[in-house]
Specification:
The complex is a heterodimer of chains A (about 300) and B (about 220).
Chain A (H helix, E strand, L loop, with lengths): L10 H31 L5 H8 L3 H36 L4 H16 L2 H15 L7 H27 L3 H9 L4 H38 L5 H11 L4 H32 L10 H8 L5 H6 L1
Helix pairs in contact in A: 3-4, 3-6, 3-8, 3-9, 4-6, 5-6, 5-8, 6-8, 6-11, 7-8, 8-10, 8-11, 9-10
Chain B lengths: L9 H31 L3 H16 L2 H15 L9 H31 L2 H9 L4 H31 L11 H11 L3 H30 L4
Classes of the chains: A mainly alpha (about 300), B mainly alpha (about 220).
């Protein structure tokens, strides 16, 4: 394999690579050996600790699936509520009227600048003080509130960048055939922007799924990560095993979402029917941070 | 109106947030650069390792990593990070977790920076007879870092916000203090506003300043 950074390897370089590989392998084996000996030392590799996950399904039906269900429920609710909110905010930021544009910008910049956890803590306290939502469902409300406030503002930027990524000719043509601003947005720009920003929306879903775990750690929301805690208490201090299983499930979900987003992006870039405008997976990290990000829309 | 603030160490909490941010930023910059070098390098095993690391770590919630560093590393495996005091241990474990997590994003930011360097640059360097380390170290990375300032700024801002996750293992930073204050005091909206403004003061100027730096150092093409 060669790349632009290095030449096709000759005998000398090949020998050197073998040496690097050997050194790296030795280092990796040393680290792994240390990990395994520490685990064995603390009795974490005993079959007893792993049996609930590898030798039966009870742990899954009793703890993991209910936890996963809550994780997915919170993520789905947040996405469904945040999408329309984000669309409204994003379009408002593109408005010609300052009294619409400026407040929307302030909201979007503010919620992107503060951590989700702060929003969740606020939600939790707000619901317990000013509403009569039962304390059982309060964590779900708090988690979804925090996620919606944050993600609506990120999605607003995704929507805005998606619309800006379309070629100028689209809105110019719409104006030329006499469409109003409202019609241009609704009939011409939005439908194409939705396609262009699909990969970005899917990768934002990964962020949401990951952030639900905050609810389990800080808000007593019984999601997947919280189930790891319950399990390690129930099955006798098998913390390492429980966390490994939970981490593997998270990686499986998020990796498939990421791959799906990547596949969508490639498909849209190759597509012949569209304008070729697409808001890639990489754009999401840009748009999640406060401030202007002109580069993202230029790429599209 | 602000009487209730007495007895709470607001500045201290934000100082802890800043410390968490800066320490993990330096650590993740180093580890992330190494990962990026491995990821674009000629040794297949290292390339595979770096790719796997980035794909796994990016897809695990930070909360899982931080909680694991406390419950798994500290409580179960007795890895205390060289301190007998629980508070110090937790702080260091939080830095470790934040660093390992953020490094994956630093690696991706640098890789996107490397992608902005025109192919001709590396080709010219190779034509001069430079080897991989020289091509990367003398020609590509200096340009890649300049192009990566923007993406790295976003990583830094995300890191600043992510330090709040350390509240999950009891590190007394801003979100932890906020939780404590909301539970004991009545001024919910005021407390939240103070904490929110605090974070705005950390993230917005960082974004503005480094955004300006990014424009300043960007290679004109």
């Amino acid at each position: 394999m060669s790349s632009v950074l290095y030449d096709a390897q000759g005998p000398h370089a090949k020998r050197r690579n073998v040496l690097y590989t050997a050194v790296f392998t030795v280092a990796a084996v040393a680290v792994l050996w240390w990990v395994f000996s520490t685990l064995a030392d603390k009795d974490q590799l005993a079959w007893e600790k792993w049996k609930p996950f590898l030798g039966g399904t009870e742990a899954y039906t009793a703890y993991i699936w209910p936890g996963l269900e809550n994780t997915l429920k919170a993520a789905a609710l947040s996405m469904i509520i945040a999408l329309p909110l984000g669309a409204v905010l994003g379009i408002a930021r593109l408005s010609d009227h300052a009294w619409v544009r400026v407040p929307a910008s302030v909201v979007v910049e503010f919620f992107r600048a503060i951590p989700v956890l702060v929003l969740m803590i606020f939600g939790m306290a707000w619901y317990s003080e000013y509403t009569d939502i039962s304390s059982d469902s309060r964590p779900l409300y708090a988690v979804v509130t925090g996620l919606v406030l944050y993600n609506a503002s990120v999605l607003a930027e995704i929507v805005r960048a998606g619309i800006l990524s379309l070629p100028r000719g689209q809105s110019e043509a719409a104006m030329a055939i006499g469409l109003r601003k409202n019609q241009t947005m609704r009939l011409v720009l939005l439908p194409q922007a939705v396609t262009a920003m699909l990969p970005a929306i899917v990768s934002q879903l990964v962020v949401i799924v990951k952030d639900t775990a905050l609810g389990g750690a800080v808000m007593t929301f019984p999601e997947l990560l919280a189930s790891a805690n319950t399990m390690s208490a129930y099955y006798g201090a098998n913390t390492i095993a429980s966390f490994t299983v939970v981490a593997v499930i998270f990686v499986a979900i998020n990796f498939s979402l990421t791959s799906f987003a990547g596949w969508l992006e490639r498909r849209l870039r190759q597509g012949k029917k569209s304008t070729g405008a697409v808001l890639g997976v990489d754009a999401v990290a840009e748009l999640a941070a406060p401030g202007e990000h002109e580069e993202v829309t230029k790429v599209g | 109106m602000f009487d209730f603030l007495e007895g709470y160490d607001l500045l201290g909490a934000f100082w802890t947030t800043v410390q968490l941010t800066l320490l993990s930023a330096v650590g993740s910059l180093i580890w992330g650069t190494l990962l990026a070098a491995m990821r674009v390098g000629p040794v297949p095993l290292m390339r595979g390792f770096a790719t796997a690391y980035v794909n796994i770590v990016r897809n695990i919630p930070l909360t899982v990593i931080i909680l694991f560093s406390s419950l798994g590393l500290y409580s179960t495996l007795n890895i205390t990070m060289g301190s007998e005091v629980v508070k110090t241990s937790n702080f260091r474990l939080a830095v470790l977790g934040l660093m390992l997590y953020t490094a994956a994003f630093v690696c991706e930011a640098l890789r996107s920076g490397i992608n902005t360097v025109p192919v001709g640059q590396a080709e010219a360097a190779r034509a001069l007879g430079l080897n991989f380390t020289q091509v990367l170290g003398l020609v590509v990375l200096p340009q890649a870092f300049r192009a990566a300032v923007g993406p790295l700024t976003n990583v830094l801002i995300a890191l600043t916000k992510n330090t709040t996750v350390a509240a999950a293992i009891g590190v007394a930073e801003a979100a932890y203090l906020m939780k404590e204050m909301v539970e004991n005091e009545a001024q919910l909206v005021l407390i939240s506003a103070i904490i929110a403004v605090g974070f705005c003061c950390l993230t917005l100027p960082t974004g503005l300043f480094l955004g300006w730096v990014a424009k300043k150092v960007a290679v004109k093409r």
